[in-house]
Amino acid sequence: MEIKLTTSEIRTILQGCQHTLRLVGSSKDYRRLQSSEYFSTSNDVVLNDAVNILFELVEAIEQVEQFSQQKESGQGARN
């Protein structure tokens, strides 16, 4: 079963995930866990890396939308 989401819904979900991760990262318990000498990930990533990745994804989506709108506007002007 395929889930159908609009671009706006995708952007909203990604931004919501970004906000949620920021909330987690700002919690005292998470900061304590992350600062532990036993905290380790296979690629040395931290929560802020995920927040930054989500930000880049949202920016990329917005760029595609802007390009698509410009392209549609340009095609409409030629017809």
What does this structure look like?
With 79 residues, this protein is mainly α. It has 3 helices and no strands. It has helices at 7-26, 28-35, 47-78. Helix 1 (7-26) runs antiparallel to helix 3 (47-78). The mean pLDDT is 92.
Question: What is the structure about, briefly put?
Answer:
The protein has 79 residues and is mainly alpha-helical. The chain has 3 helices and no strands. Helix content is 76%, strand content 0%.
Number of extended strands: 0
Indicate the proportion of strand residues.
under 5%
Shape: elongated
Radius of gyration: 18 Å
| N/C terminus separation | 39 Å
Any descriptors?
79 residues; single chain; mainly alpha
SSE arrangement:
Layout: H1 7-26, H2 28-35, H3 47-78
